[in-house]
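In response to the reviewer comment on reproducibility (Comment 2.3), we provide here a single inverse folding case reported in full, input and output, so that an independent group could reproduce the run without further information from us. The structure tokens appear first.
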């Protein structure tokens, strides 16, 4: 099978590439990425010598480019991870989020329909459900929970989901959608919470915590998300929507303390900063559907996953330094351009 993975040089996309190519080495993989500030071709270094790995630097919104690519390669499966993903950036300027996350998705689906892709999968987020109150541990997001977005980021992801549903119903696009909770693991851009606090802690810099740090996220190790997507695209029913989450709720302050303890640093580094506008209070996923239908269960316990993750960033401090300094952006030009 020929599989197109968009956003493959980002955090989850690159982890998925390693997971999937190891699990299904017989398939042919096309990793597509625009290499925005969040995309790092170095993340895929370990795959570049495989004959069944191909990299394409392209924008999912490039109508002619995407059409020509689909016409040439005739993909069996398309998995769309590509997106603008940082909530704070979406609050500062929503426009690129609308362009990439909504119009880019439509562009991919147009090509998928035209060239007979057998499964289009949209990687979405639990943030489309808005938030749950703190102190109501009985409440969870199910696949039937209403869409109730809080940020321009989540609104753009929800809009894309609605378009996917419309393409399924109106044009018969064979598609599926997954809505996952917060991921953690290697290769995450250090503007996001966990790598950011690991990076600051290792330099003894203050750890900025929004508000009072009580916001709750349902953390899932990235490989467990990859396994869920692998199961959905290969075994999940066409037209279905699955929530993915591991019943692993932690407040931001708890996470900060765990990271500081693991690195042997003082809790005095915790610094409270002005809260994010519209900051969601609590996300919590009910994953019963994917567990019942596809037998998916998270394999990594948080205590182990967070240790493994912290160790990865410390062992790969050069990766962190290059990302923070912007050096990674020169790497593609050095390695690939003019070849
Ligand atoms: N990180 C999480 O906790 C989480 C949770 C649930 C869902 N998601 C979803 O998973 C997907 C991947 O998230 P991530 O955390 O890996 O994000 P990321 O920001 O690390 O990676 C996004 C990737 O998409 C690429 N990209 C951006 N615009 C593009 C365009 N126009 N054309 C082609 N490529 C483009 C970027 O270069 C980058 O490599 C997103 O769709 C996100 O909404 C993320």
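Designed residues, in position order:
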């Amino acid at each position: 099978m020929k599989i197109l993975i968009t956003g493959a040089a980002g955090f989850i996309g690159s982890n998925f590439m390693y997971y999937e190519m190891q699990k299904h080495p017989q398939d042919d993989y096309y990793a597509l990425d625009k290499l925005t500030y969040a995309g790092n071709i170095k993340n895929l270094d370990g795959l570049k010598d495989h004959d069944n790995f191909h990299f394409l630097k392209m924008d999912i919104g490039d109508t002619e480019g995407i059409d020509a690519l689909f016409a040439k390669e005739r993909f069996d499966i398309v998995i769309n991870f590509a997106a603008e993903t940082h909530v704070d950036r979406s609050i500062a300027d929503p426009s690129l989020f609308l362009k990439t996350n909504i119009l880019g998705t439509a562009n991919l689906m147009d090509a998928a329909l035209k060239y007979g892709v057998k499964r289009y999968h949209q990687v979405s987020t639990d943030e489309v459900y808005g938030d749950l109150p703190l102190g109501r541990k009985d409440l969870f997001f199910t696949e039937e929970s209403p869409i109730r977005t809080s940020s321009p980021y989540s609104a753009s992801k929800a809009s894309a989901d609605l378009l996917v549903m419309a393409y399924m119903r109106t044009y018969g696009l064979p598609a599926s959608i997954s809505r996952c909770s917060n991921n953690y693991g290697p290769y995450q851009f250090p503007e996001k919470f966990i790598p950011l606090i690991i990076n600051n802690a290792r330099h003894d810099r203050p750890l900025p915590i929004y508000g009072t740090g009580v916001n709750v996220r349902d953390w899932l190790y990235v490989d467990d998300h990859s396994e869920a997507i692998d199961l959905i695209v290969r075994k999940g029913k066409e037209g279905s929507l699955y929530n993915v989450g591991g019943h692993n709720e932690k407040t931001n302050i708890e996470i900060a303390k765990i990271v500081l303890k693991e690195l042997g640093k003082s809790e005095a580094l915790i610094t409270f900063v002005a809260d994010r506008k519209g900051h969601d209070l609590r996300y919590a996923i009910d994953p019963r559907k994917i567990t019942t239908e596809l037998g998916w269960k998270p394999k990594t316990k948080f205590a182990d996953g967070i240790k493994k993750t912290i160790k990865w960033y410390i062992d790969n401090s050069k990766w962190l330094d290059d990302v923070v300094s912007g050096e990674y952006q020169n790497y593609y030009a050095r390695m690939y351009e003019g070849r």
